[in-house]
Specification:
Number of domains: 1
CATH topology: Rossmann fold
Strand content: 15-25%
Oligomer: single chain
Largest sheet: 5 strands, parallel
Shape: globular
Order of helices and strands: HEHEHEHHHHEHHEHEEH
Helix content: 40-55%
Length: about 250
């Protein structure tokens, strides 16, 4: 009876969103955009992303856009792809230790996608505030999504509006940089923070405004601890044993 109750509770928890695995993602027909939401610098998210990219590249052209690499370093990625820069010299050329809070080893296999015939795009946006003179789309629902992420902390209305606009600008820039060099053939795979995928907003929403008629699919690469589960989201399938441990109070 206890096990049946547990299964019923898990089914109810999963009713809001779809559970997916690697096979579901690589089955997406080309041409398409695939946005993978990661926990920054964390495994197994990045290993999953690499495996997905490699599998897609076995059958089609793949362009891989990475939020983790600032757009100012596109020339460095191009030099590496052209054989003008060695693997050992790449982290220093990217100023990795100065620009990233996450270990190089976590991202190395993605950043060096040129080694397995993948075009790699530096899609990390600048940290500047959005210009007051530039118009860019901000979807309705952004505020409630980010308020959910903040929990019970109250945010002043003016601060909330500036924060939402800043996030929309950042995600707009990631989408912009990601699409600039994609010829709409094969796959465009974007690896970004999971917040850019959740709720159908973020980077996925921005891409749908830019690429009319091109399918855009968003996936979260880890279920996380008590993850948000918005209607329509697609989260990596959590093994049943992990759910059972979690129901007993075990945390990863």
């Amino acid at each position: 009876m206890m096990l049946l109750s547990f299964i019923a509770a898990m089914a109810a928890a999963e009713s809001q969103c779809t559970q997916i695995g690697r096979a579901d993602i690589v089955a997406v027909p080309a041409p398409a955009v695939i946005v993978l939401g990661e926990r920054h610098g964390t495994q197994p998210d990045l290993a999953r992303a690499e495996r997905i990219v490699r599998l897609l590249a076995m059958e089609n052209e793949v362009t891989l856009a990475l939020e983790s690499v600032g757009d100012v370093h596109q020339g460095t990625l191009d030099d590496f792809a052209d054989g003008k820069l060695s693997l050992d010299a790449l982290p220093q050329a990217l100023e990795w230790d100065q620009s990233s809070a996450f270990p190089w080893t976590a991202y190395q296999s993605l950043v060096t996608g040129a080694l397995y015939d993948v075009d790699v795009i530096a899609a990390g946006p600048p940290t500047d505030a959005p210009p007051n003179t530039k118009r860019f789309p901000v979807p309705s629902g952004y505020a409630s999504l980010y308020v959910d992420a903040m929990g019970n902390d109250e945010v002043e209305k003016g601060i909330e509006e500036r924060f939402v606009r800043a996030m929309a600008w950042r995600e707009n820039r990631i989408a912009h940089f990601s699409t600039q060099s994609w010829d709409r053939k094969g796959y465009l795979v974007i690896v970004t923070d999971r917040a850019g995928v959740e709720g159908g907003l973020g980077v996925t929403w921005q891409l749908r405004q830019m690429l009319q008629g091109v399918p855009v699919h968003g996936y979260t690469l880890h279920w996380g601890s008590n993850p948000p589960c918005y209607s329509g989201d697609k989260l990596w399938r959590q093994p049943w044993w992990d759910k059972l441990f979690e129901s007993w109070g075990w945390k990863e």
